[in-house]
Amino acid sequence: MSAEATNPEAHPEARPELRRRGRTRLDLRRLGRAALLGPTSRDRLPDAIGHVAEAHRAHHPDADLSILRRAYLLAETSHRGQMRKSGEPYITHPLAVTLILAELGAETTTLTASLLHDTVEDTDVTLDQVRAEFGDEVCFIVDGVTKVEKIDYGAAAEPETFRKMLVATGNDVRVMSIKLADRLHNMRTLGVMRPEKQARIAKVTRDVLIPLAERLGVQALKTELEDLVFAILHPEEYESTRALIAAHAGERDPLPAIADSVRGVLRDAGIAAEVQVRPRHFVSVHRIARTRGELRGSDFGRILVLVGENADCYAVLGEMHTCFTPVVSEFKDFIAAPKFNLYQSLHTAIATPEGYVAEVIVRTRQMHRVAEAGVVALGNPYATATPDAAATDPDEERVDPTRPGWLSRLLDWQQSAPDPDTFWTVLRAELAQDREITVFRADGGTLGLPAGASCIDAAYAQHGEAAHGCIGARVNGRLTSLSSPLSDGDTVQLLLAQDASSGPAAEWLDHARTPAARIAISSWLEAHPDRAMATTSAARAPLSVVGARGGGGNAVADLPDATVRLAGCCTPVPPDAVAGFLVRGGAVTVHRIHCAAVAQMRAVGRTSVAVHWRATADVRVTLLAESFGRPHLLADLTEAIAREGVEVVSATVEPPVEQRVRHSYTLQLPDAAGLPALMRAMRDVPGVYDVSRV
Question: How many other CB atoms are found less than 10 A from the CB of residue 533?
Fold first, then answer.
């Protein structure tokens, strides 16, 4: 229930300076009196929601306001007699919440549900009544908001409450839009509560609702919530920041002059643009002060350039970088690569001759609407759904073409979370991520992952539980380990084992960043305790298989009765150019002429011996096969070698490291010409990714 909110004038941190400059302040007491008296005429909108109607028509000129009138009358009648702690009529709260959404550009259905969002929980109105009067869509949203109302107080720390909130948000993002506006109004009017209760509510807002506002792209709500939470939880730093801003207000601000210069440049270039100076909010100023130390006048705001088309954004950028000195390190292109919350803009910074550095944001007007209002600016994302979509099953997930990828991922893994505590832990970790990367799949698709994600995270994001059998990856065409972190724009190809019994290693948890990957790996390890205890990197001696043959193959030294040995470091075969050296015991070791050991032999004064190849075609060679570990790999490789008519003289298998295994084979070939075909046959064995001569 939202009736905990109190008098807006009692809280000094909730003054208009924290909200958008120039906005007409809503007189809640006047609206409360109008609500108690009721409308003077039944054929027009009640005076109490005139502000809402005006704000709504500014974004939707053709909107039908009759449904808002009916929703207000039902809400006012139902809440009549209920008072807020400040002594105001309770109807002032849904009115204020609805006004916030109307100013963001929410469509009529959202505003209707907002007016009614507390009726089912706090009055005798039922969902069936809402459905009968306003339809399935409004009923669906009101029901979703009702289900998450307990998040406010007391039960807010219960993980299962957040799970329900997440599911409700995923089924209709407008549920969370109303919830965020509801929380913003309550935070604005938090003044007469006990300090400990203010702090508890502020912490919940900081930990969950502000990150959700960020992910839904509702920056207008997110920034004001941040300032209000900052004032409650860090009052000393808040006062210090307010003093900085107040001191700056009395000084000359260089940004308006810089903005005038930008206007002139764009006007001369023939680019139609609107140039504004956007003051930073309190938390932003605080962060900049901590990063840069002493602040200059241009640090207290940014320049915003609004244009009509995407191409105009890049034209503006070109003029900025041509006519001013750009700070190259500050350039970011969020148009070509939008953020995970739908945000698009060009960011740059320019230096002026006076030594000021001004940050510049360039975007279209549509991008600006989405940047400010996020999913609220997208209207009704379910408009193309069938009329009965919401009524078929309240628990069934509806298709939302605008739903951010991060929300889809959370909805997927929350179903697999083994218990509420695990869910809560990974939810907090997910919400703490403030940046997302996009990687490209080998089949042309894309994956959205949090910054710092590894190939393991990509595997579970693409293949789900089938990723248990992942044995490696290629990133940008190069083979890499599964623990390798990914960067924005990487192309990743994931390699899966054919053996269905393959499973993840326990150390995968050290490199998994996404909730989906961590939950899936943990669940598999719990279900296979014997496999979990086994470590693939345990130290053990290499496995060796040694045949009966040895010697120098068909290499002959020009030294009577000398024993000839082919060097294992380079394994020469005909017709390689070779060099021989006399070593201890009177033996001659044969190396390829370009082998590094040749220079060492000469440096230590080893006696050089002429070596040539016999006329016979058979050769001996050592090959190194690098592969991903899997059952029966050694047998499959040996079988592939045998099919080529090659004899195994010796084989050595090194201990696996990160599921990668190295096999060394010394082989006797009947003909050197068959070596390329043998190496191809070995590479074709599943799991083998490279075969080379030692």
Answer: 9
CA dist list (Å): 327 to 73, 261, 330: 56, 17, 6
The CA distance from 265 to 270, in Å, is 9
- CA nearest to 680, candidates 625, 619, 631, 630: 625
Q: What is the DSSP letter of 621?
A: E
Q: Give the mean model confidence (pLDDT) for residues 402-415.
A: 59
Q: Determine which one of 4, 17, 47, 122 is catalytic.
A: 122
Contacts of 609 (CB under 8 A, 6+ apart): 557, 558, 559, 562, 580, 581, 582, 588
Which amino acid does the sequence have at 46?
A: P
Sequence-distant (≥ 6) Cβ neighbours of residue 435 within 8 angstroms: 450, 451
Average pLDDT value for residue range 414-418: 61
DSSP notation for 477-520: TEEE-TTPBP-TT-EEEEEE-S-TT----GGGGGT--SHHHHHH
The crossing angle, in degrees rounded to 10, of helices 159-171 and 173-188 is 120
Q: Which two tokens stand for residue 510?
A: 């050290």
Rounded Cα distance, 275 and 361, in Å: 10
Q: DSSP string spanning 433-490?
A: ---EEEEEETTS-EEEEETT-BHHHHHHHHHGGGGGGEEEEEETTEEE-TTPBP-TT-
Residue whose structure tokens are 């005038």 = 260
In the sheet that holds 470-475, the strands lie side by side as 446-450, 436-441, 491-496, 470-475, 478-480
Higher pLDDT, 111 or 393: 111
Question: Is 122 a catalytic site residue?
Answer: yes
- Could you identify the residue written with the tokens 């994956």? 447
Q: By three-state DSSP, how is residue 413 classified? A: helix
CA nearest to 564, candidates 580, 576, 553, 552: 552
Catalytic site residue from 4, 9, 47, 121:
121
pLDDT band at 13 (very low <50, low <70, confident <90, very high): very low
pTM: 0.64
Tokens of 124: 């005798």
Q: Which two tokens stand for residue 642?
A: 């045998």
Q: How remote is the C-alpha of 450 from its chain's centroid?
A: 3
By the 8 A CB rule, do 480 and 474 touch?
yes
Rounded CA separation 14/172 (Å): 30
**Higher model confidence: residue 687 or residue 435?**
687
What phi and psi values does residue 306 have, to the nearest 5 degrees? -110, 130
Which residues sit opposite 624 in a β-bridge? 664, 692
Residues 288-342 have pLDDT tens digits of: 888 777 788 888 899 999 999 999 999 999 999 999 999 988 898 888 878 777 7
Compute, in degrees rounded to 10, the torsion defined by CA atoms 179, 183, 184, 186. 140
Residues 129, 132, 134, 140: is their CA dihedral positive or negative? positive
Instruction: Give the integer Cα–Cα distance in Å for 579 and 588.
Output: 10
For strands 491-496 and 436-441, give the pairing.
parallel
Report percent pLDDT > 90 for the chain.
21
Known active-site residue 309: no
The reported pLDDT for the residue numbered 164 is 61
Question: Given a cut of 80, is residue 427 above it in pLDDT?
Answer: no
Reading the block at residue 314, the tokens are 């890049």
State whether residue 664 is helix, strand or coil.
Answer: strand
User: Which tokens in the block code for residue 120?
Assistant: 């089912």
Both structure tokens of 519: 């939950």
Contact call for residues 476 and 486 (beta carbons, < 8 A): no
Structure tokens at 192: 């007469």
